[in-house]
Amino acid sequence: MKLALIRRQFSATGGAELYLQRLLQALVKGGHEPHLFAESWQGQLSGVQFHAVPVSGDRAQRPTRFADAVAAELAKHAFDVTFSLERTYHQDVYRAGDGVHRVWLQRRQHFAQWWRAPFVCAGRFHRNMMQLEARTFDPANTRHIIVNSDMVRREILEHFHFPANRINLVRNGIDLDRYRRGQRNATRERFGIKPDDTLLLFVGSGWERKGLRFVLRAFHRLKAPRVRLLVVGKGTPPLAVPGGVIFAGPMSDVENAYAAADLLVFLPIYEPSSNVVAEALVSDLPVITSSLNGASEIITPRKNGTVIADPRDTDAVVEAIRFWILQRGQAEMPPKHELSLERNVEETLAVLELAAQEKRQ
To answer: Does the pTM exceed 0.70?
Structure first.
């Protein structure tokens, strides 16, 4: 197959980028001809043809201008399948890895302080994103959608008239080998964690969406002297931070953070399907997360984690933390192959091949 793949910014880091890199490798290995359309690309792969689609403008303008520019470039070629990881105008397959923008805005309003709520959806950027989204989720413009959780599938069906039988669930996958080689003892020593201490872990940037404030609130309420909290990710720490919290900043060796920890606590207000849940489970860590995270669907309650209905329910979070402290080392993890990137790529390829077959008919 001759395929067009669309991603605005492509680098060798990040969950979506790693996913796309592995997919491109699989396509080349399978004898296909992949073409990547992006503003820029770091770490080009042999066998992949790169098409630069540079755009200018401010934050509000760039997504629409990119969609315009990609449409113009695609018109110059003929492809068996066009696969977009961005909200663009016409594609055979769209991967809704970012979820539904209007639902994200609704969640922001719902969880914002009362005086901020009216301003959450304001601005050209959000208007442009919702207009792009409406075009992407129009069945006349998109043949198939890939979602990474049933939660996102339900959101699409609720807000758009897209045929349910053309929405394909392909759960995220991760690099299993990476999260099996973390160094527990050395990393705990690096952050001053004693052997008998319990270490809670939060991983993620964009702390408003990922619910760090709810994690800090529960940690403060916990008041357990032998429990510490390691926060990994980019952000500005709040002015009032409970004792025992360590802000590590971004970690290129985040697998070591998982190895050092005993429990992941991650309470987002909106996540289509966060990779950190799978990363923790592969690292043999139980997970406490919110029901507003599509990745909560891979958790078996009281076996390998706890799903909190509302991240603001501090009592429920504290109760779950105490439960898992008592169950330390007793979690039953799901089969690792179900979380693998290889499984994800294989299922994605099946959807692309289906779309190509339908297009030929």
So the answer is: yes
